[in-house]
Amino acid sequence: MSTRQEKVNSLIQRLVSEYLVAERFEGITGLLTITAVGVSADLEHAKIFFSSLGQDQTEVLKILREHIYEIQGMLYNHLQMKKIPRIVFVPDSSGAHAGRINQILNELADDHTGAQ
Q1: Quick one: which of 33, 38, 61, 40 has its CA closest to 48?
Q2: Which of 18, 44, 85, 104 has the greatest count of CB atoms below 10 A from its CB?
Q3: Global pTM?
Q4: In this predicted model, which residue has the larger pLDDT, 33 or 97?
Q5: What would the DSSP string read from start to end of 46-77?
Q6: Are 63 and 25 spatial neighbours (Cβ–Cβ below 8 Å)?
Q7: Are 32 and 20 in contact (CB under 8 A)?
Q8: Edge to edge, what strands does the sheet with 45-53 contain?
Q9: Which has the closest alpha carbon to 3: 34, 39, 28?
Q10: CATH number for the 3-115 domain, one of 3.20.20.80, 3.30.300.20, 3.30.930.10, 3.30.390.10?
């Protein structure tokens, strides 16, 4: 990944996070976090990964998709680039996956100490 891609990723993550905090879209009741952004090499597309706590991610994804044109418009207004990446939101399940792995490890550790 190039330095330019990293800078664009970071900038989009910050702008979208600030916008979501300022706008407070109706229907989002849980804690919403923009965990990462992945911009394609040609800067045409950007995947915005998010996680939500206290609310189903499919509900949050539906709300974000309803407001995607507003968010895209905000990026057009704030980014000073020739190409503004077209965004798509993707639920980030890495936190849930890590939690499940941690739970399994704890169960294994409990089983191991119980067997001794």
Answers
A1: 38
A2: 85
A3: 0.78
A4: 33
A5: EEEEEEEESS-HHHHHHHHHHTHHHHHHHHHH
A6: yes
A7: yes
A8: 31-39, 45-53, 86-91
A9: 39
A10: 3.30.300.20
Contacts of residue 22, defined as CB under 8 A and 6 or more positions apart, other chains included, come to none
Residue type present at position 23: E
Task: Report strand pairing: 86-91 vs 31-39.
Answer: unpaired
Instruction: Tell me which residue of 29, 56, 52, 45 sits closest to 88, measured CA to CA.
Output: 45
Could you report the per-residue pLDDT of 49-93, keeping only the tens digit for each? 998 888 888 999 999 999 999 999 999 999 988 889 999 999 987
pLDDT of residue 47: 96
Q: Which of 80, 97, 75, 83 is nearest to 13 (CA)?
A: 75
Whether 68 contacts 90, CB under 8 Å: no
Residue positions counted in the chain: 116
**Domain range summary for the chain, segments of one domain joined by +:** 3-115
